[in-house]
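ENTRY TYPE: paired fold submission
RECORD: A
CONTENT: sequence, then structure tokens
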Amino acid sequence: MRVIVHGVGAIGGTIAAELARAGQEVVGIARGRQLEVIRDKGLTVRTPELTYTQAFDCVGDPAEIAFRPDDAILLTVKGQDTEAALGQLRAAGVTDQPIFCAQNGVENERRVLRRFPNVHGVTVMLPADYVVPGEVAVFAGPKFGLFEIGRFPGGVDAADEALVEALGHCNFAPFLSEDVMRPKYGKLLMNLRNISGAALGEGAAAKAVGALLIAEGEAVLRAAGIDWQDVGASDPRRKDLMQMRDIPGVDRVGSSTAQSLARNVGSIETDFLNGEIVVLGRLHGVATPANDYMMALAARMLREGLAPGSIDGDEVKAALGL
């Protein structure tokens, strides 16, 4: 099996580097300075225990890859970039190779399934930052990440087993999941707080707003008849396998949303996180004022180029009645 990692950022970069370090054949797909640095020097991975630089093949477009039947494609771009990535894969000649959505949110799998028949979900618990081109930082140990992997919409097959085996040779904790969307909905609830932390910083105001966002999310999922699996701190596997840890000399930027704002990339995935709750709320008659408000705030931050943590927490709490 060869692993194609489409989107070599914090998540994709960590996975690609770890797979390559374990001897797995890997091809990354990156862009801009990230691509240039990886091609020139490899990718530097900073962790609580060690720092290493790993080389692996990397291209700027899937069209540069001669796809093989034994390829497994890991889609690690953010939700707002999925459509463009799928167009690239189709134009490059991808047909029925397994495509794994190692992404936040729950809509990517459906979008892939419109174009390709062999779709899999990956619930990703991997606290990593990508801000500086050519570097990622992973703030967890003893394992860097925990994954739930299964076929979409359900079941597991040989492709899932092969990926779990490959990731198991790395410093990850991968698990097969017969119903992979249950943990993905659990991760969605956690990710509703991304925008509150990115906008307000990680203080008391962000925690209060985040709790409100999750409460709305849980109410919406119940109304929609959607079950979810807790993948947060109460997951018993987290205590033994993956806990948050500091990296000496490295400050954590925060969630993927905060990282997008810090890098000023011009887009964030809020529409595919809080936006999922807003859509389901509208479909099932459940009001979602807090998630609506934070989506509008995210759009404003993008429009005005505002930095992470620059929004007044008291102003947001007052607007949400907290």
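RECORD: B
CONTENT: sequence, then structure tokens
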Amino acid sequence: MSQPRDIPIPPDLARRYAGNSAGRAWLASLPEMIRGRMDQWQLELDLSPGALPWSGHGGIVLPVRSAGTAAALKVAFPHDEALVERHALALWNGHGAVRLLASDAGTCAMLLERLDAGRSLQTEAMDRAVEVWGGLMRDLRLVPDGRPQWREFAHVAARAEQWSDDLPADWEQLGRPFPRWLLEAALEVCQTRGAVGRRSGSDVLANTDFHFLNILARPGAPEQAGPGSFAAIDPQPMVGEAEFAVAPLLWNRIRDLPAADPAAGLLERCRDFSLAAGLDPEAARQWSIAREVDNALHYASKAGHGGDLARSLWVSSTLAGRTLDGLPAPHSLPEPGQAAGSAETVTVTAPIGGPAVTGPGPLQEPV
């Protein structure tokens, strides 16, 4: 078995963080951080010779053994989500989410139970995904109590208040990349669902990045396993309405929507997943509009994301009831992470009486 000093850095992770001084410093420090946690927690590397560690957008994950038991060592770049992930996992305590075994705040390192990295909800049948996601969401929806971890999380309503200022300013600065009515639909959500009066009665711990790829099977789970055989990974925790968490299900697996009427299929998916989790489908639809408009502006600000922008605009405008003209067919839209690098320009046609608006570069969204 290889030793920690021999661990290679996955090329995609190296490329992602080599573009600035903070990222390069973190990459250079990774070997020492990994060795330190291996020694501290008395871990044995369980990586086959020549194999690469797992990696996500913000960190590296190593298969290890702890006292002979399979586990996973995750070391993340110190960003906002990584700094609070361990607090959410501690509150969930393995119920609905991967179990946290140990953590080190100084290095954003966590020792986790090992899940089946080769089996996620991405490839499960949609009816199975509805059942599993709904069951896990019920487990994850904790009500705030007196434990200190709760003080670490941002509030969904505060995010909505920030969007009320930022979205119109960004929309203007980016040259009005889509019709104003869609911006106003998102702002209306922020002003109603983000109202101060909503900040207490419906507050729960919400995993805001709870999509198909971030739900893995526990080892040995049978083919027709229920929610208890799966667990959430890589949470982005916030406090607020649980319906805020539905949106990533709608901008992933778009090609699985019915070809005959994908717009109706999108609304049906929003309803099915919401009801399976005991959520309000209308609140989920509204929050998803706001989240996708925010994503659209993010992609409009970046070259090479035309496919991502198109996907965000199709999802947000369809949920708002007025699918924009001039977008690619939904089944040709890229999955998150697949569209970067395209140089295509997407032209969005405004509703009757409005001008056509050309968005920068190809169009994508965070998974």
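NOTES ON RECORD B: The chain has ten helices and 13 strands. The radius of gyration is 21 Å.
STATUS: closed
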